[in-house]
Design brief:
Length: 486
């Protein structure tokens, strides 16, 4: 029993320390940049372009597989950014993805069609095909690869208004090789999708900003900005065949000495999966890819280009599914049993109802402090959520941890069986519309109204969940630390 108690204490302590450090670092970084938690709370997506510029040629890469439901408005939302080129990589779609993208994009959009047997080999392979075309265009146009920025967008991704104005200046620092935007969930019309928004917007976005202090911000599959020369350093084919090619790229860039950062002043919105089976499949893939990142630990420890702090942060991040999620999925229930058996001892010397209330409140605040704080942050990020709803979302993490537990064990089973199949996230059909006074596609305005939540999204990780403690337990370690990949 003592060994189990020690293990539970160690896991909670490590998780809590990591959570506190990243959240504190994130809030400090937001303030250092003269911003606020609510900076992106009421932003619009896909309708307001940034200022025209030619200092950084921007190439959007949009890998697609049967994305006819969402690709039109995504392409239109990207092409409103003047001075950019959009390359849609159709990875063997059976629907009208190519035709729709070509019609929506106009002269500044190319559609690169891949057919079987070369197609459908994973997102990384589709991106590697796209980067070949980017390099050809850069050479033909005589552009400096060190100034070229490649932006990976999901087929349902839409940048916040003036996003490029806030992201591109990050690359004025020659050491910056990549930047990842915060992710906001667009279809917040059910508990499941609202909770995914809470994970990304209330927790992951702040921890991601916190990781910019060590230059180890995790790249996601949506709104992933990288310098072309940084990609060239990684190799001719910078994206791997990993289930989480974005995490693998982030590790490779860091190992080559590039800093990875983010900004609190720009974001991207996207769809969340709307059914539990889809969520389980998606998160299982994330966990499996995250677990396999453990193979990069020797490279991290040997690297002479990483600071000690950066190497420590990346190591803990890569180990978190193994050291936190899997053990805690067992120890959590041991702690519950112990609480049930010995909980009365908390009230042994309490004789009044007021004393009982104080003891219970003190226990709650200590056990649920990270959850309560995350709920408060979520409310501060978007006041339309409401303080009580934000706090309740934080407390729900105790229950939704079971999704992480299940996905972690399913991922482990897939690892042991040697299964590496790539499962695409299913999209939901969205209604088209016309923008208000701009005449541009009404991308933001088409978000379904959610009572008590913003009808126009505002905006952060996937893929990832930052370890924390909820009800004396680490917050789902699979979805908060890393920006999401879809």
């Amino acid at each position: 029993m003592n060994a189990l108690n020690l293990a539970a204490t160690a896991i909670v302590s490590c998780s809590l320390a990591y959570f506190v450090l990243l959240m504190a670092s994130g809030i400090r970084e937001i303030r250092r940049r003269s911003s606020r938690l609510s900076a992106q709370g009421r932003t619009r997506y896909g309708v307001v372009p940034g200022a025209e510029q030619d200092h950084y040629p921007v190439y959007f890469l949009v890998p697609c597989l049967n994305e006819a439901e969402v690709i039109e408005r995504t392409v239109r939302g990207l092409t409103v950014n003047r001075g950019t080129t959009t390359i849609v990589v159709d990875d063997g779609s059976d629907d009208e993805t190519s035709a729709i993208a070509r019609a929506a994009g106009g002269s500044r959009t190319e559609v690169l069609r891949r057919d079987l047997p070369n197609a459908r080999q994973g997102k990384g392979e589709a991106l590697n095909a796209g980067i070949v075309r980017v390099r050809e265009l850069v050479e033909d146009r005589g552009e400096d690869p060190a100034r070229v920025i490649v932006v990976v967008m999901d087929a349902d991704g839409r940048l916040s208004e003036n996003a490029l104005d806030h992201v591109l200046p990050l690359f004025d620092d020659d050491d910056v090789g990549g930047a990842q935007l915060q992710v906001r969930i667009r279809n917040r019309n059910s508990f499941l999708t609202k909770f995914q928004d809470f994970e990304f917007w209330g927790v992951a976005s702040i921890t991601q900003i916190g990781r910019s202090a060590t230059g180890t911000v995790s790249l996601g599959g949506n709104a992933q900005f990288t310098r072309l020369t940084a990609l060239d350093d990684v190799g001719e084919r910078p994206w791997s065949d990993s289930l989480t090619e974005d995490l693998d790229l982030a590790l490779s860039l860091a190992l080559h000495g590039w800093r990875l950062t983010t900004t609190p002043l720009a974001s991207v919105d996207q769809q969340a999966v709307e059914k539990v089976p889809q969520l389980l499949r998606q998160r299982t893939r994330w966990y499996q890819g995250h677990m396999m990142a453990i193979k990069r630990l020797p490279d991290i420890w040997r690297s002479s280009k990483l600071s000690h702090v950066a190497a420590l942060e990346l190591s803990f991040y890569c180990l978190s599914p193994w050291l936190l999620t899997l053990p805690w999925s067992v120890l959590f229930h041991y702690c519950l049993i112990q609480l049930f058996i010995n909980g009365s001892q908390l009230l042994e010397y309490v004789t009044s109802a007021g004393g009982v209330a104080i003891v219970v409140l003190a226990w709650y605040l200590m056990a649920f402090a990270p959850a309560v704080f995350s709920g408060w942050v979520y409310w501060r990020r978007d006041r339309r959520v409401g303080i009580w709803r934000g706090l309740m979302m934080g407390n729900y993490m105790v229950l939704t941890n079971y999704i992480s537990f299940a996905c972690a064990w399913m991922a482990l089973a897939r690892v042991l069986r040697g299964e590496t199949a790539w499962v695409k996230t299913k999209r939901s059909t969205e209604q088209a519309g016309t923008g208000p006074s701009t005449g541009l596609p009404a991308i933001a305005a088409a978000v379904p109204d959610v009572p008590g939540a913003p009808s126009v999204p505002v905006v952060p990780v996937q893929k990832v969940l930052a370890p924390a403690s909820a009800a004396g337990s680490p917050v789902s370690v699979g979805a908060v630390l890393r920006q999401t990949e879809t």
